[in-house]
Write a structure and sequence with these properties.
One of its GO terms (biological process) is galactose metabolic process. By secondary structure, the chain is α/β, with parallel strands linked by helices. Helix content is about 40%, strand content about 20%. It binds nicotinamide-adenine-dinucleotide.
């Protein structure tokens, strides 16, 4: 079985990807320092797959740890999820973000070079596009100056990968630019586990519905969008996880020194109010929300053109917004 090292594999997207890798006949080896995840995810993954995945608790910035994993397993590919992702915190503590998000990529690339590991899938983000002038966003839409250190780490990491491939170090890399990951595994055994106040809309919605938070604020309803609230492309996390499997399969067929980038979204934009109403419809819970002022720095609307990933990787989102809301809600209820 092909062994794939997944950094940040105990986290939200990484844990779902571990399941999809396993379903596709690959064996995930999980490396996570649990800075933003819980060790019980390993038990939950076992409940879903019937397999206890190899797990290393530690920092992927540590070369010695990576080496000891490579001594035990023949690693044939890498998916690098591990990163800090709180945009607000990154503006307060930029060094923490540059060190972890950029520093870890440097360590991993050196490790790949030394061990002759060729294939890497990197977690990038639609944040690199900022507020695009033309919608939907294609992969050739120009990247904009980052709004935050977090966003900048994604841009810098993409640039580092391009330079390494240009230098002919022999690697094959895909950057996946995720739009807005939502939902949870349909089994409700794994999902997003925000520590403290959620930064993202959907965990906030489910926590308000569960009575953990009092009220949801919609930041602005007077934008130039379908109903005045901000618009995003919400992609179910299981669909997103499958995109990593497709990306690895595609990398495997490429020559050395390969780099490409793909948007991962549904191709549809939904407004914040549409998300709220979809949630209310599937859950039967009336949400307590209020409209507040616009939030500085918010992208007004963005959604993906998915033609490239549909045609080249043969991947297409299958889950609807309602599916995402149902699975997020079932996950939230399972936490009670
Ligand atoms: N969730 C989103 O909205 C979103 C959108 C675009 C891109 N991304 C990117 O996708 C990736 C995964 O995001 P997620 O939502 O699953 O986040 P997450 O926080 O749930 O998962 C990241 C995991 O990495 C671990 N980690 C962090 N630093 C580490 C280190 N140095 N060594 C080992 N483990 C470490 C954390 O403990 C966590 O389990 C990140 O790179 C993130 O920037 C996420």
């Amino acid at each position: 079985m092909k062994k794939i090292l997944i950094t940040g594999g105990a986290g939200y997207i990484g844990s779902h990807t571990a399941v999809e890798l396993w379903k596709a006949g690959m064996e995930p080896i999980i490396l996570d320092d649990l800075s933003n995840s819980d060790p019980t995810v390993l038990d939950r993954l076992e409940e879903i797959t019937g397999k206890r995945f190899a797990f290393y608790q530690g920092d992927c910035n540590k070369k010695s740890l990576l080496k000891s994993i490579a001594e035990k397993y023949k690693i044939e590919g890498l998916i690098h999820f591990a990163a800090f992702k709180a945009v607000g915190e990154s503006t307060q503590q930029p060094l923490k973000y540059y060190r972890n998000n950029v520093g870890s990529l440097l360590v991993l690339l050196k490790f790949m070079e030394e061990k002759g590991i060729k294939d890497l899938v990197f977690s990038s983000s639609c944040t690199v596009y900022g507020q695009p002038e033309v919608l939907p966003v294609t992969e050739s839409t120009p990247r904009q100056e980052a709004e935050s250190p977090y966003g900048n780490t994604k841009k810098i990491c993409e640039d580092i990968l391009v330079d390494c491939v240009k230098s002919k170090m022999g690697i094959r890399v895909i950057s996946l630019r995720y739009f807005n990951p939502v939902g949870a595994h349909p089994s409700a055994k794994i999902g997003e586990l925000p520590l403290g106040t959620p930064n993202n809309l959907v965990p906030f919605i489910t926590q308000v519905a569960a009575g953990i938070r009092e009220k949801l604020t919609v930041f602005g309803d007077d934008y130039d969008t379908v109903d005045g609230s901000c618009v995003r492309d919400y992609i179910h996390v299981v669909d997103l996880a499958e995109a990593h499997v497709k990306a690895l399969a595609y990398l495997n067929k490429q020559e050395n020194n390969f780099y490409d980038v793909f948007n991962v979204g549904t191709g549809n934009g939904n407004s914040v109010l549409e998300v709220i109403h979809a949630f209310e419809k599937v859950s039967g819970v009336k949400l307590d929300y209020q409209v507040g002022p616009r939030r500085p720095g918010d992208v007004v609307k963005t959604w993906a053109d998915t033609t490239k990933i549909n045609n080249v990787l043969g991947w297409k989102a299958k889950y609807s917004l309602e599916d995402s809301m149902r699975d997020s809600w079932n996950w939230q209820k399972s936490l009670d």
